[in-house]
Amino acid sequence: MNKLTFANIGMVGVIVLMSFFLWSCENADDILKLEDSIDSITESLVDVESRLEEEEEKLDKLKGWKEVQERYQASSTKVEAVESELKLVKEKTKEVSISLKAASLDFFKYRNRYRSMVRTKAKGTLIDLSSVKGSEYKGVRISRITPLELRVILPSGPKGVPYALLPEEHQHRFQFSDEEANAYRQAVAKLRIARAKENSVIDADKENEEAIAQLTENAAAIAAKKSQLTSLTRRIKAKELEAGRLESLSRQWQIEENNSKRRGKKDSANSRAKKASDEANKIRLAILGAKEIVLQLRFEIGQLLKVN
Questions:
Q1: Is 85 within the bounds of a domain?
Q2: Range of the domain at 12
């Protein structure tokens, strides 16, 4: 544009000189011809200026497109790296999920075996409960442990100490819990109703133990299914986020591919937008299957709760 400005100044000088010449010319026809020539030159100059501005605008656009293309290439490289890393993370997550599911099921079985072992070994051992029941309970012998209490032998006879009164260290040691206690109370209530209906003498302790074993198994099954349900729910949320991300990428890439078509580029049958959309659809189908499993787990938990 600076060159054009200098050119304009030079042209103005030419016009001034020609005007001066016109004034000094005695022939009127020559003056008119010169004026027409000046007008023609002026119009040509305006046209040249206009075309120069258009060319400069085109050059600016070409520079912008080049920058966009470079950023696109860099982004494509990063996306490929992220997709590769994401694939590895998915595989590791799947392995961890399988291991966690197996571990959660084994944990409840282990806890029940450990609880039974600890209570069996505790029978006949001495314990100091004087801090909660007075000096009479110092160094008393454990006779039996139920889900509700710790039974000890005193000089006056066997006594029971509710687990809620025990120091926290003993509650942990003998694996007392509100969950087990509630299951035990329900089992006892059912047995009492059954005895009343049958009008028979039943060994309460034996049937209590059988009922507790069944309820304990049910409680373990409920806990396992709840753990599985929680894990599955988290996985569904993660998959929904992943599907949403892929769908967003698909829409973005589809716009870019449409722009490429308008610029005359051929359409690729294996476009990134289509791949991302197909992967998102697969994840959505998997989510539907997982949600059906969630409904089944909730139904099974409800059935087990009815039994309890």
A1: no
A2: 2-54
Q: Tell me how far apart the alpha carbons of residues 273 and 247 are, in angstroms, rounded to a whole number.
A: 9
Average pLDDT over residues 189-210: 73
C-alpha–C-alpha distance, residues 193 and 147, integer Å: 20
- Of 35-39, 172-176, 238-242, the poorest mean pLDDT is in 35-39
**CA angle 171–103–179, rounded 5-degree value:** 30
Q: How far is CA 281 from the centre of its chain?
A: 17
Q: Do 229 and 301 meet the contact criterion of CB atoms below 8 Å apart?
A: yes
Q: Are residues 152 and 184 in the same domain?
A: no
The answer on 240 and 142 residing in a single domain is: no
Instruction: Determine, yes or no, domain membership for 14.
Output: yes
Residue type, 77: T
The secondary structure of residue 165, as a DSSP letter, is: G
One domain, residues 149 and 33 = no
Distance separating alpha carbons of residues 143 and 128, to the nearest angstrom: 14
Residues 125 and 237 in one domain: no
**Would you state the pLDDT for residue 3?**
47
**Which letter does DSSP use for residue 147 in this model?**
S
DSSP string, 71-132: HHHHHHHHHHHHHHHHHHHHHHHHHHHHHHHHHHHHHHHHHHHHHHHHHHHHTT-EE--HHH
pLDDT in tens, 246-299: 999 999 998 888 888 777 666 554 578 888 889 989 999 999 998 999 899 888
More confident residue, 111 or 103: 111
Secondary structure of residue 25 in the 3-state scheme: coil
Last residue of one domain, picked from the residues 157, 175, 193: 175
